[in-house]
Amino acid sequence: MGTNLYVGNLPFxxxxxxxxxxxENEGCSVTSVNLINDRETGRPRGFGFVETATPEDAQKAxxxxxxREFGGRSLKVxxxxxxxGGGGGNRRPQY
Length: 95
Hints:
This protein has helices spanning 16-24, 55-65, and strands at 3-8, 30-37, 44-52, 69-70, 73-74, 76-79. The protein has 95 residues and is of the alpha+beta class. A hairpin with a 2-residue loop joins β4 (69-70) and β5. The longest helix is centred in the middle third of the chain and has 11 residues, at 55-65. It starts with a strand and ends in a 16-residue tail after the last strand.
């Protein structure tokens, strides 16, 4: 089973293909790339997730790409944490 990586501080102009190429150029087998867009505006949020084929590929990517400059920005690459709780910032207080 693969490993899901968080990729932060991406340039807003980055495409899924460019991010996939970045990881594959480091010898990592990528199974999926998911860049996050703002729900309301549709604009890129500057982060996303890359799933690698193996945990070894994930470690290789973290070592090679965390802190590397890409599109004028210093990338943040680490293992993605699972979501805790329900989120949902639109909750109103109960009276």
